[in-house]
Amino acid sequence: MEIERKFLLRRLPDNLESYPCLQIEQAYLCVDPVVRVRKEDDHYYMTYKGKGMMTREEFNLELTEDAYYHLRAKADGNVISKKRYLIPLKNPGFKEGFPKPPADYTLTIEIDVFDGYFQDLILAEVEFGSKDAAEAFVPPDWFFEDVTYCKEYHNSYMAMMQFN
Question: Which CATH architecture has domain 2-159?
């Protein structure tokens, strides 16, 4: 089960380039249900995602490089390309009443800096272990708008956008 929230940012964190980074390319074979192929540095896989915006089923299957490129050629729409920075968020905030996590509790903020048609877009995603934690999460002050439920910020929607 994937449980994640998406946010626009007020600003990027300092020293963004000092964090681990993945180069990601992904293409969509289908968007209802979502079936995508992804290249993440030198790793390749196919993902099925069920219905939902914040909470949905997700299954991954490893692919060979040849299989990835074979399937990518059959994809519909735009190939999405982005850099993903992995930033630890130590001692994240949660709403009052949510059980206090252990002192060493850390979430990972995934900041996606898009290329190509979407080069002006930067999104942050945070994954959670439960729906309750996701709903109780208090984002850092450098986050801006929660766009979890805005389809326009889901990669599968972006892949189908048409440009002249």
Answer: Beta Barrel (2.40)
